[in-house]
Amino acid sequence: SFALISADLEVTFVDDPDTSMRIVLGGADSLHFGMVSSDGEELCRGKLVETSEGQTLELESEEGTETWRKIKPDAPKIVSRKKGGLPRIFTKEGQQGSNQPEEG
C-alpha cells in the first residue's frame, strides 16, 4: 500500500484515504517513533538503527517485529520497476529484492 506523509507527520493511505494515522517522534534523537491511529491508539513503535552494514528500520507491534533494510545505492535491481516510478529506499527483510541473499 502506498502512503503519503505530510510535513506535520499525518499519514494517509492512497488506497484508503479515510484511514488516517500520525507519526509521533519519541525522545530527543528522533530515531525512535510511534504510529498512532486517529483516536490515539498506539499501532506500532519503530526505530532507525545505524550499523556497519547500513541503516535498518525496526517496527514492532502486537503482531510481531519487522526489519527493513536501507537499499545500498549500488545494489543490483532484482525487482523490476516501471520506468519513472518511485525508487524503493527500504526493503523488508526476506522480501524479493532485499540486499540479503536468498536462503536455500
Head-to-tail CA distance between termini: 29 Å
Could you state the order of secondary-structure elements as H and E? EEEEEEEE
Rg, please?
Answer: 15 Å
- The class by helix and strand makeup works out as mainly beta
- Major β-sheet annotation: 8 strands, antiparallel
What spatial form do the alpha-carbon principal axes imply? globular
Number of strands: 8
As a percent range, the share of helical residues equals under 10%
Question: How would you describe what is shown here?
Answer:
The protein has strands spanning 3-5, 10-13, 16-26, 32-37, 42-51, 54-61, 64-70, 90-92. A hairpin with a 5-residue loop joins strand 3 (16-26) and strand 4 (32-37). The mean pLDDT is 78. An eight-stranded antiparallel β-sheet has the order 1-2-3-4-5-6-7-8, with no helix packed on it. With 104 residues, it is mostly beta strands.
Write the layout of secondary structure elements.
Blueprint: E1 3-5, E2 10-13, E3 16-26, E4 32-37, E5 42-51, E6 54-61, E7 64-70, E8 90-92
Characteristics of this structure?
104 residues, mainly beta, globular
Concise synopsis of the structure shown:
With 104 residues, the chain is an all-beta fold. It is built from no helices and 8 strands. The protein is 0% helix and 50% strand.
